[in-house]
Write a structure and sequence with these properties.
TIM Barrel, 3 domains, alpha/beta, binds zinc ion, 5-stranded mixed sheet, binds 2'-deoxyguanosine-5'-triphosphate, DNA polymerase, domain 1, binds calcium ion, Beta Polymerase, domain 2
Length: 593
């Protein structure tokens, strides 16, 4: 187990001891140990067999060394489990609310048997907190707001966080002998831009009905599980420290496909597929596709055989939203969706010259490692002062440096000169036309004044796409997932004009943006827009985030042909807005309004 998880278990125990009015010395020793473990530079799991070495860490005595060994062995601490049984497993969540310490939690428990965030919310709503010592109006208000924030935060999660949590859990499950196949289902498998909870499905001989108990125990002991919520015959639910809930289901091999189909969803897709099954004399459940008349088994081990038995091509999970995919599967006209391997370049990224963490050269080398044929360096412009954005002079110098790296690399990758230029309040761009004219790739983005009225924002964006140098409109709606709504905008009007002028619209694959969203991407395609997908990397490692964006493109039914940077380097440059289109626009813009 990693140090942070060990520290958390020790800190939990200290909190629980304090809630139960335990011995103050004991409480303190757990807290000190938690801090010592958290700040230790030694990975404790590597020395867990050696009590002497453990005790060399300041803050860890003999008893605590034994506790750490027990944590390594059992994945938890008996004392913590005992205390959680005495109260409720959800008790620790209360401590994550602002204004809540162990003493307050103890008081709430003793006076009102409040043992979870839900309990507390109810108690506040029913006015049962009033009159309790220490619970003044101010604290109650603070708690009410804290609960709302907590629920919102714990409501949904960014796709990369969810995926990381799933990967860790899958690695743990893989270690159990007899668990062979493990897949995330639910919204994560469908590639939704945020995830409510994880639905993990595992199968293998260890999941057979007559022996699944041992595997269930193993799952329930997952060290990173913070709160065990339910443990059934073949299902375990728990919450991770982040608040993310996980449902793990263990299924016999013969019904794995049926379960995968069921728990991948979406609900509306499933409803339609089930109706189709009924019409054909079958019932479809999470266990199998079976005949209505005698319940005899038709299909269940794989999704392919289930869809095939219903007269359907297999449907990629990203399309399962009841948006016409079932009709398309019936008529064998599902699109061949774009894949990450189709992408030949990434044309939005930042360097140390502004707010990136790596140099031009480092970004280029990372691009080579990914097998790209080209990248574009697109740092910020001066309006974004906190990033040290470029003015005209620095922008020109930067172009020179980019071209130098491009030459140094001798065609191993092309490095295009670009800029992510700010769209100012009135729709003007932040750099002069002469400088923009020297760029291979000019991306125009809004980074300020998000609260304009819709009409003004629409005019601002329209004016920006009218600028003949703009080739790509960056993260067009400005949303930040779980943090900021899109700005008010007539997106349709902007996309329509972009299509006319040949300005490409971006899908920004950075997982807290994923902008344009799947629905808007579909609209963009319908309106004839060119689409570019970029990571907006600020670090070499961010180039790998491309896959989250690819899932959004797939959810929008996009094929390779719909996306500009599936083209080779020369073809990509050629496909960007053409000079003739710029000329058209100049004539157009000189017409009287
Ligand atoms: P989420 O977790 O909110 O991001 O979205 P999902 O799609 O992962 O939803 P979740 O976790 O509630 O359920 C996972 C899948 O299980 C869902 O997509 C379809 C299936 N499912 C769950 N409950 C029902 C139900 O009541 N009826 C049907 N037909 N399917 C269900
Ligand atoms: Ca889910
Ligand atoms: Ca679920
Ligand atoms: Zn930006």
């Amino acid at each position: 187990m990693d140090n942070r998880s060990i520290a958390q278990l020790l800190a939990d125990t200290a909190d629980l001891l304090e809630i139960s009015a335990g011995d103050p010395f004991r409480i303190r020793s757990y807290r000190r140990a938690a801090e010592a473990v958290e700040s230790s530079t030694v990975q404790l799991s590597t020395i867990a067999n050696d009590p002497k070495k453990l005790q060399e860490i300041p803050g860890i005595g003999k008893g605590m060394a034994a506790n750490i060994q027990e944590i390594e062995r059992a994945g938890t601490l008996p004392l913590r489990e005992e205390l959680l049984l005495k109260y409720r497993p959800t008790m620790l969540e209360l401590l994550r609310l602002p204004g809540m310490g162990p003493k307050t939690v103890a008081l709430l428990w003793d006076a009102l048997q409040v043992g979870s965030v839900e309990d507390l919310e109810k108690a506040i709503a029913e006015g049962r907190l009033e009159g309790l010592p220490r619970f003044g109006e101010k604290l109650i208000e603070k708690l009410r707001k804290g609960i709302a924030d907590y629920k919102e935060r714990s409501g949904r999660f960014l796709i990369d966080d969810a995926e990381e949590a799933a990967e860790k859990l899958i690695a743990y499950l893989k270690k159990f002998p007899g668990i062979e196949t493990i897949l995330p289902a639910g919204s994560l498998r469908r590639g939704r831009d945020t995830v409510g909870d994880l639905d993990i499905l595992a199968t293998g001989p260890a999941c057979a009905e007559d022996c699944v108990g041992a595997a269930v125990e193993y799952v329930a002991n997952y060290p990173a599980a913070n709160t065990l919520l339910a443990k059934g015959q073949n299902k375990v639910s728990f919450r991770l420290r982040s608040g993310l809930q996980v449902d793990v289901r263990l299924l016999p091999v013969g019904s794995y496909g049926a379960a995968l189909q069921y728990f991948t969803g979406s609900k509306m897709h499933n409803v339609t597929v089930r109706q189709r099954a009924l019409k054909r004399g079958y019932t479809l459940s999470e266990y199998a596709l079976a005949k209505v008349e005698d319940g005899s088994f038709v299909a269940g081990a794989t999704e392919e055989e289930i869809y095939a038995a219903l007269g359907l091509d297999w449907i990629p999970p990203e399309l399962r939203e009841n948006n016409g995919e079932i009709e398309a599967a019936e008529e064998h006209r599902l699109p061949v969706l774009i894949e990450e391997a189709d992408i030949r370049g990434d044309v939005h990224m930042h360097t140390v010259e502004t707010d990136g963490k790596n140099t031009i050269r480092e970004m280029a080398e990372a691009g080579i490692k990914r097998g790209y044929e080209y990248i574009a360096i697109t740092d910020h412009s001066k309006n974004l002062a906190m990033t040290m954005g470029l003015d005209d002079k620095r922008a020109v110098e930067h172009i020179r440096r980019i071209r130098a790296v491009d030459e140094e690399l001798e065609g191993k990758i092309r490095v295009f000169a670009g800029i992510e230029v700010d769209i100012l309040a009135d729709g003007d761009l932040d750099l002069s036309d002469e400088v923009l004219a020297q760029m291979d790739v000019t991306i125009a983005s809004v980074h300020s004044l998000f609260n304009m009225p819709e009409q003004q924002m629409t005019e601002r964006m329209l004016r920006a796409v009218e600028n003949p140098h703009v080739k790509i409109l960056g993260h067009p709606t400005g949303r930040l997932l779980l943090r900021r709504e899109p700005y008010a905008l007539d997106l349709g009007a902007v996309l329509r004009r972009a299509a006319e002028l040949g300005v490409a619209v971006e899908h920004n694959a950075y997982p807290d943006r994923l902008d344009l969203c799947d629905r808007d991407l579909r609209l963009a395609k319908e309106l004839g827009c060119r689409i570019a997908i970029n990571t907006d990397a600020h670090h070499t490692s961010h180039l790998g985030k491309m896959r989250y964006g690819i899932e959004q493109l797939r959810r929008a039914w996009l094929r390779k042909e719909d996306v500009l940077n599936t083209l080779g380097a020369e073809a990509f440059l050629k496909a960007l807005r053409k000079p003739t289109q710029v000329k058209d626009r100049l004539e157009w813009s000189t017409r009287p309004a």
